[in-house]
Design a protein that fits this description.
Structural class: mainly alpha
Largest sheet: 2 strands, parallel
Number of helices: 20
Length: 454
């Protein structure tokens, strides 16, 4: 009876022992899984709201908004900047507020930009500054990733964290593809009737309900926020002040993992934002929107595989070989680009990019699996009195902070492609960056007698 009371939803768990096998199998595993399967749709909605402007900006000129290309670019880029910055703060929120409370609050916050966007696009006099504020608020969705991953990391034993974090992040990342599929459908229908407002008519005479790009998420956000509040749990073992967690800024491995995760997740989210533009610029005869959604889709669905492989083979080993394949995939993408001496091959280019997206997904999962192992080893070597509790707190903070650092890829990678570097220069720069990550992974984590094998 005592264990049953511990595992009721909506309660604070005061004695969480996931590394205790008997405790884990007595019901803790079911509670952890319940928290995970509520966290996943919450994170999916967060990614959908975070990236929604990439689908909205292409329609704004059609309904009478006279924004130039630079302004439209900023509307696409601002959620990436704010989301990455918010992740820095969100990564510390779960130990302060509790996972249940913060998941419910942060999910509910997504209604603010979703509703505001729905009303703003219906008024052709809405100024650019208002849209810029809404775009920045969509960064709430980007910030949620850090707290979500931090929270789930507390619930699982070390040997299952890779799979759990991979599922949470991978299925959550599908929010980008879900959004890209759903928005073109819902903006063509008056699904909310009179409550949704009047349609807009384009210069070509087509009827659009662009407000639905925001409104469609609201009922789902409400339901998931309620589910989080009543169905998830707060763990007292996860409690820590900001001061307690700030120790990670003195940990060398926090910064090394920031660099490594920038190469995986930063590439995933950056390529997701840039892929339609890259197709359009390199192969203008191809309808980019028919194919671009497949990149983030395969990257997302392969992330759980990366976590599972890391659980079985070791995170550092998977990450090391994954980076090597990423280098080869980028080289292949460059090979199939049109040039002065070749017309290029869209088929080869597309397949190479799919391999690149797959490897970003696998690397996302395997990299996150490395973090708790590294910090467990670190505290064992340090002789920490309560290794499990302290390593869990630090690794959860690092999981959140590295995700914040890497999220800036949503801004910088598209910006690089649009700069004087061009496609070729950007791809070469990325190859150099990936090689640096190969060396870091091998030296510290994957070689024989590595100081922190993970």
């Amino acid at each position: 009876m005592k264990n049953k009371n511990k595992f009721k939803g909506g309660r604070v768990i005061t004695d969480w022992q996931p590394e205790n096998r008997q405790y884990w199998e007595s019901g803790a595993n079911k509670l952890a899984n319940r928290n995970l399967w509520i966290s996943i749709p919450a994170l999916l909605l967060a990614f959908a709201v975070w990236m929604v402007w990439s689908a909205v900006i292409v329609r704004l000129p059609d309904i009478g908004f006279e924004f130039d290309q630079a302004q439209l670019f900023w509307l696409a880029a601002l959620p990436g900047l704010s989301g990455a910055t918010l992740r820095i703060f969100y990564s510390f929120m779960v130990p302060i507020f509790g996972g249940r409370r913060w998941t419910a609050i942060s999910t509910a916050s997504l209604m603010i930009p979703a509703l505001w966007m729905g009303f703003a696009v219906q008024n052709p006099d809405t100024p650019f500054s208002v849209f810029a504020i809404i775009a920045l608020l969509c960064g709430f969705g980007g910030g949620n990733f850090a707290s979500s991953m931090s929270n789930i990391s507390f619930f699982y034993p070390k040997d299952k964290q890779g799979t759990a974090l991979g599922l949470n992040a991978g299925l959550g990342n599908l929010g980008v593809s879900v959004m890209q599929f759903l928005i073109p459908v819902v903006i063509g229908m008056g699904i909310f009737g009179a409550l949704g407002g009047a349609p807009q008519v384009t210069s070509a005479g087509k009827t659009l309900y662009l407000q639905n790009a925001g409104f469609v998420w609201v009922p789902f956000i409400f339901l998931v926020a309620i589910a989080a509040w009543f169905g998830m749990n707060d763990l007292t073992s996860a409690k820590a002040s900001f001061k307690d967690q700030a120790i990670i800024f003195k940990r060398k491995h926090n910064w090394i993992m920031c660099i490594i995760y920038m190469a995986t997740f930063g590439s995933f989210i950056g390529f997701s934002a840039a892929f339609p533009m890259l197709i359009k610029n390199s192969f203008p005869e191809i309808d980019a929107l028919k194919f671009a959604f497949l990149g983030p889709f395969v990257g997302a669905i392969f992330r759980p595989l990366g976590g599972w492989m890391a659980d079985k083979l070791g995170g550092a080993r998977v990450t090391f070989w994954n980076f090597i394949i990423m280098v080869l995939a980028v080289a292949a993408v460059m090979y199939f680009l049109p040039s002065d001496i070749s017309q290029g091959s869209f088929v080869g280019y597309f397949i190479s990019f799919m391999v690149l997206f797959i490897t970003t997904g696998i690397g996302n999962g395997s990299t996150f699996r490395m973090i708790p192992v590294i910090f467990r080893t670190f505290h064992e070597k340090l002789g920490t009195k309560d290794v499990v509790t302290e390593s869990n707190k630090e690794s959860a903070a690092v999981v959140g902070f590295t995700s914040a650092f890497a999220a800036y890829g949503a801004f910088f990678i598209p910006k690089m492609f649009g700069s004087s570097l061009g496609a070729q220069g950007t791809f070469i720069s990325l190859i150099v960056f990936y090689i640096i990550c190969i060396i870091l992974t091998w030296w510290y984590y994957s070689r024989k007698n590595a100081p922190f094998p993970s």
